[in-house]
Amino acid sequence: MATLTPDLPVHARSGTPLLFTGATTHTLDPSLGAVTGGLLVEGGTITGVDVDAHPGAHVVDCSGLVIVPAAVDGIDLPGRHEHRLHPLTRGNPATFALVRGGAELESVIWWPRRAAAVVVEGEFGFLAGRRLLPAPTSTTTPVHAESGPRLGTWTDKTQDVVQELTPDGRYTEARNGVQDAYQGAFWLTHDHIAYRDDLGFWAYGTFRDDVLHHAHFTFRR
């Protein structure tokens, strides 16, 4: 990953296309799924997914990393008060994290400051734990791409873990009889859920046939 260097934000701001290669990208788009080809970013937008090359692009070697969508509220963007979790598809904002983890989405759990990099609308917000964009000046609010059917109470078979997803975009999780053991915000998009715990770490899950798969847990209503 020799090209993951502090000069990259200059390339992003100058308008030079960035081609992120070598990573598994979880697009969160059901028609694409996970791809291993390059992710092309021009300006603040994704302009190519699963591409091999692009003339004039600055290649970012992401070997050994996983790319996942991110809903970033630790960054200040002028005129922006809300941040939506967008699938990584053409035309969507280039906001994502490059993290170390397994190829399976459910195994990706990361702390924002420990990510190899966080890209916010085409610019590097964090790189190797260092903040490159200003801290927020106001509190942001989670925005759901969808709601309703996924909300409510989810629990594992033994009911040792009980998770409540509420309409205000918050979750609370009881574990082994301890109420509110984990709390935070969540975002829904298609069949995926992203959690950001109030302590700062992120986790992801997938809905399949009304079953929520999260880490090594299997939840049902």
Overview of this protein structure:
Pfam families: Atu4866 (PF11512). One of its GO terms (molecular function) is hydrolase activity, acting on carbon-nitrogen (but not peptide) bonds. The strands form 4 sheets. Strands 14-15-16-17-18-19-20-21 form an 8-stranded antiparallel beta sheet, with no helix packed on it. About 0% of the residues have low confidence. By secondary structure, the chain is mainly β. Strand 10 and strand 11 form a beta hairpin. The protein folds into 2 domains: about 120 residues, Urease, subunit C, domain 1, CATH 2.30.40.10; about 70 residues, Lipocalin. It is built from 1 helix and 21 strands. The longest helix is centred in the N-terminal third of the chain and has 7 residues.
Shape: elongated
The overall average pLDDT, rounded, is: 79
* Largest sheet entry: 8 strands, antiparallel
CATH class bucket of the largest domain: Mainly Beta
- Count of the separate structural domains: 2
InterPro entries: Atu4866-like_sf, Metal-dep_hydrolase_composite, Uncharacterised_Atu4866
GO molecular function, one term: hydrolase activity, acting on carbon-nitrogen (but not peptide) bonds
Give a quick rundown of the structure.
By secondary structure, the protein is mainly beta. It has one helix at residues 8-14, and strands spanning 18-21, 24-26, 34-35, 38-42, 45-51, 58-61, 66-69, 82-84, 96-99, 117-120, 123-127, 130-131, 141-143, 152-155, 161-165, 170-175, 178-189, 192-197, 202-208, 211-214, 217-219.
